[in-house]
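Reply to dn_fold:

You asked what the input looked like. This is it:
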Amino acid sequence: MDLQQRGAAALACSAILTLSACAPIDRSAAPLQARPGALQQCVELVQAFAHPRTQLASAAWVAAGQVKVAGQDVPEHCLVTGRMNERTSAADGQSYAIGFQMRLPKAWNGRFYHQGNGGIDGAVVTATGPVNGGGGATHALMMGFAVLSSDAGHAGALGPFFGLDPQARLDYGYQAVGKLTPMAKSVITTAYGKAPDRSYFGGCSNGGRHTLVAASRYGDDYDGFLAGAPGYNLPKAALANIFGAQRYASVATNPSDIGTGFTAAERQLVSAAVLARCDALDGAADGMVQDVRACQAAFSLDRDVPTCSGARDGSCLSAAQKTAIAPIFSGAVTSTGAPVYSSFPYDTGLGTAGVAFWEFFAPMVLDSGAVGVIFKVPPEPAQGFNGPAFTLGANIDTLAAQINATNATYTESAMSFMTPPAIGSNLQKLKYRGAKVMVYHGVSDTIFSWDDTVHWLDTVRTGNGGGDPSNFARIFPVPGMNHCSGGPSTDQFDMLTPLVNWVEKGIAPDRVVAQARGAGNAAGVNADLPATWSATRSRPLCPYPQVARYNGSGNLEEAASFSCR
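and this is what came back:
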C-alpha cells in the first residue's frame, strides 16, 4: 500500500464510529520527509497576501545576526506581522484582535512550527520556536522552520479581564489556533510558492496546553506535537493552587506572606529527605531521583521529615504544617472529598525559588485572576477585584462548580474551552494519520503536575483499547526540573529533532540526552544546580515508564553511564 492509499484508508477509518474496528495504519515504512525551499518574496507579502479578516501590518527582511538567541546569530529571515478578526466587544467595549508574527527563514526546511505561548497569552512573543523550557541555542527558526507566534486573541494590557468577553475566552482556549493555522499556511504558500510539507505544534506551560488541545481539536492540521509541562487541565490546576494557598495561609507565621507557612529552609528540608529516601533507587547515589514511581511509594512526609517538638527552625515541620501541606501533594479536594485536580509527586526541587513563585505568588496574583475572571461563570466584575482577597476567601466547592458552569452569555465552560476534548478517540485518529506526540514534564513542577501528565497518557492508553500507545505518544519526565526549566536537573535538551525524526523517518525516540546548564552555558546558568555536579552533567530522559538506571560503571556525570530500563 503506497502513501496515498494509506492516507485514504486513514481518512476512511477516522470516519468509522467504532474506531476499534480499524486496523492501525503504519506510515513509518514510507513517511513523507519535508523538502527544503527558498523564500521567493518578503516585503511584497503585504500586498500579495490575502486571507479573510486578516491584515498584514508589515513584512521586512531581518539580517543574519540581528536577532540572537543564547548568543547565537539567527539566520536571515522575513518578519511578518499582522492581525486577524479585529472587533469591538459588546460585553466590555474593548478592542480585540488576534495579533501574530511569523518568521520565515530565507533557507527554509519545508516545515511549519506553530509556537504556543505561556501564561494567559496576550503578547506576541518572538517567534523562534523553543524546543525545550530550559533554553539553548537550538530552536525551530534556527533549524529552518517557518514559525508562528500569537497573542491568542487579546492584549496583555487587559490582564485577566479579557475573560469578561465570551469570544476572547474561546479564542484563548482554542479558537485562535483554529483561525491562525490555515492563515499561517497560506502565508507560507504565498512566500515560498508551496505549502509546508510537514507541520508541528509546540510550547511549554500554557503552550503545552495549547499543544495537547491542538492534538485533540486540530489533529488533521499537524504532524507532530511537542508539549512541555502541559497544563491541559489548567482551570483545575489553578483552582488547586488556590486550595494550596489557603492551606499555607493556615500555618503562616506572617499573615501577609503565605510563604511563611512553608519556608525555603523547610522546603529544602523536605527535598533532602526525599533525596535521602529515594536517590539510590535507580542504582546511583547522584543527587537525582530517576525512579519517580518507586520514590512515591517509598517516601512518607510524616515519617521521613522530623516533627517539631518545639519552635520551627527549619530542621523540622510542625504537626500542623504536615496536616496542612500533605493534602496539597495528595491532591486538592472539595469539602466532600471529591478530587479537584491531581496529586503531585515529592521530588528534589522543592526548595527552589521557582517553586516559591508558583506556590506563594501565583495563587494570589495569577490564579486568582484566571479563576475569578477567565474561568468561572459568572466572572468576577473588574471593578474592585482583589486577587489575594479572592484567593484566601474563596469557597473551593463553589469554584469547582463554576469552572464547569455555563449561562446565556458564556455558553462554553472553562473545562470545555480550555481542555482537549475526547483525548482517547481523537488521538486514535491522529495515530492512524501517522502523527506523533512527545511530552516532557519536570517532576518538581508544582503548578502543573507530572502525575496529571501520566493521567493524560493513561487516557490515551484507554482510547487505544488498553494497548501501549508508545508507537504514537510518549511522555518524558525530567527529574528535579521545576516548571518548564530550573531545579536541580538536566533541563537543556532538544525534543524537536527527535520528534521530526519520528514523524518523518519512523525513528522512535527511545531516549533524549539532556544536559545541565552550569558555568559557561550559552543559554545561561541554572542557579539551582548543586555545587557537587559537573557543569555539563548529562542524563538520558527516558520515555515513561522506563527509568534511567545506572549501568554499574562509568562516569556518574555522563548520560552514557545510564540506560533506559
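The mean pLDDT is 93.
Hope that clears it up.
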